[in-house]
Design brief:
InterPro entries: Bact_transf, EPS_sugar_tfrase. The protein has 518 residues and is α/β, with parallel strands linked by helices. It contains 19 helices and 15 strands. A four-stranded parallel sheet has the order 5-4-6-7, with helices on both faces. A three-stranded antiparallel sheet has the order 2-1-3. Strands 8-9 form a two-stranded antiparallel sheet. It is flat and about 75 Å long. The protein starts with 12 loop residues before the first helix and ends in an 8-residue tail after the last helix.
């Protein structure tokens, strides 16, 4: 099949001429064999969706029929009807089959297996849960109208177990998918379009996160310096923005990412979209705003223009109450459960080196208020006095955060505790007292705050956390800019689901040897 640019009949002759040139011949030539290979490689989306469909079905059959057998046994239990119901009784075996079919249909209807949501972010999981609630809500409404008495225990057990198993299966598939994407497989092959500066920036962002599923294979820039590469990268320049069809064929790209429209003709983006094959090739616009996601971004079409509205970050009283309630509940339960471990660590610190068990350090919290942060002492007693003499010997951390890979102040017991983040556990009492949260920005030292640029102070909109995006995003290996970016992105896009995800990732990170940020 040839790759043909579809130009609308009302396009002016001037618009048509702008689409010819170096790319015009490529559009009229038959697609080379490499393009057919690209189509074959692009089938991973359908293959992956089929695999999700099969495992979703297996999970629901296991849950629904397993719940039925657990609740009613192997007998032929009947769905009971009220006296005035016009529906005759029928077997739960039939009802369970219908429930599975409707559940599977709703998962497909809500696009939970779409390649646009799989592999990264919480959208896939949210859609699975939303589809599940929709199914059981519909059952409740139909049962009420038709006066059908479905066993409540059977439904109340099927819903949470089904959602849990579906999300677990999707999570397992995601781990497999991310591992494949790190090797370049199961990823969209991306051709970047825009100025060299914007292309280089977006390319670095995409290549830094291969698990997201975007493999950059080339770029088209207005200058069109053929046989050259984007500065600072190995991405080949495939020609000007008029050479997109030929560039896509040569690189087997299936996705075009517009990194900036400032250097493009007014109608160029529309013409690019016309030239893409529906269903197989995709167009993505990368706005210049970064680290903003979720409900803060709304697209509203006005006179044919897709206007992007970006709301300013707001933290309602209800959100703060909900976050505080979760912090308090989990911290109290956590302290009770790990109290033997806390006692054991306290004894280890006490008898392993001279000095107090707890180390109290002044940190800066919400609204720039200072507080005393608790930690198990992991360094020698006069560690703070030794710091000035070690500043010139730092070999880790970044320009603001001091770290040494072989810090002589750390005790043997402290080294073990830091490796598994055990020295942070007393901060649960900070959470209970209200000066910290379980999840939040990193709590900085006063001397670090003195070096902050104005925009960095936005991290004080929320309480600092025991863990956060900085903890699971790279720890002390992060540059200062990346640390700030992660914290500000968390503050500006906070959600309860994001907190839960970070806590789960923290448990995983803490189980792997490594050093936490100071």
């Amino acid at each position: 099949m040839t790759s043909t640019t579809r130009i609308d009949a009302t396009t002016t002759s001037q618009e048509k001429s702008s689409t010819t040139g170096s790319g015009g011949a490529a559009r009229r030539q038959p697609a080379p064999a490499s393009l057919a290979k690209g189509r074959t490689s692009g089938d991973w989306r359908r293959r992956y969706a089929r695999r999700l469909w099969v495992t979703d079905l297996f999970a629901l059959v296991w849950v629904v029929y397993g719940t039925q057998i657990a609740w009613f046994g192997m007998g032929n239990a009947q769905v009971s009807m009220r006296d005035d119901s016009r529906v005759t009784e029928f077997s739960y075996w039939l009802f369970s089959a219908a429930l599975i079919i409707v559940w599977m249909w709703s998962l497909g209807l809500i696009d939970s297996r779409s390649d646009r949501v799989i592999g990264t972010g919480p959208t896939e999981y949210a859609r699975v849960m939303r589809a599940s609630f929709m199914v059981f809500g519909a059952i409740a409404i139909v049962a009420f109208i038709a006066r059908i008495d479905v066993a409540r225990g059977y439904l109340l057990l099927s819903l949470p177990v089904g959602m849990f198993l579906l999300v677990l299966v999707r999570w397992m598939w995601r781990q497999w998918l991310v591992s494949q994407r790190t090797t370049g497989r199961y990823a969209a092959r991306v051709l970047l379009i825009g100025s060299e500066t914007s292309v280089a920036q977006i390319a670095r962002d995409l290549m830094s996160n291969p698990g997201a599923g975007y493999k950059v294979v080339g770029a088209c820039v207005p200058t069109g310096r053929a046989a050259a590469t984007i500065p600072g990268t190995r991405i080949p320049i495939m020609g000007t923005v008029d050479a997109i069809p030929g560039a896509m064929a040569a690189t087997e790209a299936d996705t075009v990412v517009i990194t900036g429209t400032g250097d493009l003709p007014p109608l160029k983006v529309k013409q690019i979209s016309w030239g893409l094959e529906a269903g197989r090739q995709h167009l993505i616009l990368a706005p210049s705003i970064t680290d903003i996601a979720g409900p803060r971004i709304q697209t509203r079409p006005v006179s044919g223009l897709p206007l992007i509205h970006v709301e300013t970050p707001r933290f309602s009283r209800g959100q703060r109450v909900a976050k505080r309630a979760m912090d308090l509940a989990l911290s109290l339960v956590g302290v009770v459960l790990i109290s033997p471990l806390l006692l054991a660590l306290a004894l280890v610190v006490k008898f392993s080196s001279p000095g107090p068990v707890l180390f109290l350090q002044t940190r800066v919290g919400r609204k720039n208020r200072e507080f005393q942060m608790l930690k198990f002492r992991s360094m020698v007693q006069d560690a703070e006095d030794m710091l000035p003499s070690l500043l010139d010997q730092r070999d880790a951390g970044n320009e603001v955060l001091f770290k040494m890979s072989d810090d002589p102040r750390i005790t043997r017991a402290g080294s073990f505790m830091r490796r598994y983040s055990l020295d942070e556990l007393p901060q649960l009492f900070n959470v209970i007292a209200g000066s910290m949260s379980l999840v939040g920005p990193r709590p900085p030292l006063p001397r670090e705050v003195e070096q902050y640029a104005d925009h960095v102070h936005r991290r004080f909109l929320m309480k600092p956390g025991i863990t956060g995006a900085w903890q699971v995003g790279g720890r002390s290996s992060l540059s200062w800019e990346d640390s700030v970016r992660l914290d500000l992105a968390y503050v500006e896009n906070w959600s309860m689901l994001a907190d839960l995800i970070i806590m789960v990732r923290t448990i995983k990170a803490a189980s792997s040897p490594g050093e936490t940020a100071a």
